[in-house]
Every structure is written in C-alpha cells, then in structure tokens.
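Writing this down once: the sequence line spells out the residues, with the fold written below as integer tokens. This is how one looks:
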Amino acid sequence: MTRIPHGTSPIEIRQAFQRVIAQGDVVTTGTLNYILVAQGVGVAPVWQTILSTVDHGGIGGLSDDDHAQYHTDARGDARYYTETELDAGQLDNQYFQESEFLNTSAGAGDAGKPVKLDAAGHIDATMLNDADIDHGLLTGLGDDDHTQYLLVDGSRNLTGNWSI
C-alpha cells in the first residue's frame, strides 16, 4: 500500500491522496456507518463500525453551561418577569387578567383593550350601541351604493335576461 507523506499544506495533502487513488491503493467509497481507521505505520487501515445514534445521556459534560444564548433558571432572562414578581401582584395594574374585560367602550382611549364576548364567542350585545347598527340611523342612506338593485322611483332600467 502506498503511504501518504506528511504534508504542510492542504494542497500537498490533496495531491498525495490523488496519487494514491490513481494507483488504486485506496478504497474511495465505504459503507454507511463505517469509517477507515489507521492501524499503524505501514499497516493497511480497516473499516470500523461507527455509532449511528448517540445517547444524549451518555454525552460527557451535560451539566456544563456551554450555551450562554439559551435561557436557564440559574441565568434567567431580563426580558421576562419572574414568577415571584407575578405572584406578588405588582404587575396586575399593567396587564389584564383573564377575568377582566370591558363592558362599555370610552372610544379611542379603550382601543386595544379586551372586549366582552357572549357564550357563542361573539361580541356581547352590551358592547354594541344600537344606534350604530340600526340601518335607519346609518349615514349615507340617500346614496346609491347598491347598483344591483332596481330603484323604487324607476330611474334604473331593468336589463339582462330574466326568468320567472
């Protein structure tokens, strides 16, 4: 078997491998989950099985804190409130609780606040101003916004194919 000399640059090492491959002394393809392992000077390498899976519990250094970018209970994260802060109630005036909702709206000042829903999940009737949804009280009733309808005064012609 041809030996690959020690190279001082990646180019020298690559060229040495190319010479060995050209002479047919190296197996260039292996089998899944096998690696070539050196056996010593002047001895041909052998194929050896590698682990296809790694047991997480068997990895060394599991108790190390090598990933400072992740949240841990010891390090905490300044972006979030602690359980102690939440349990003490000091944030209650800043956030809505699940039982809080608006019964009525004061207008723009209440924008973004939670609304009261009925049992079906729709906006509760107490949140609506009937004057806002009564068709007769809407503005623009004199406008001709629905051109698909005939006008009572007969000013729109009946066109197209009709069947009875």
User: Anything to note?
Assistant: DSSP finds three helices and two strands in the chain. Residues 74-141 form one domain.
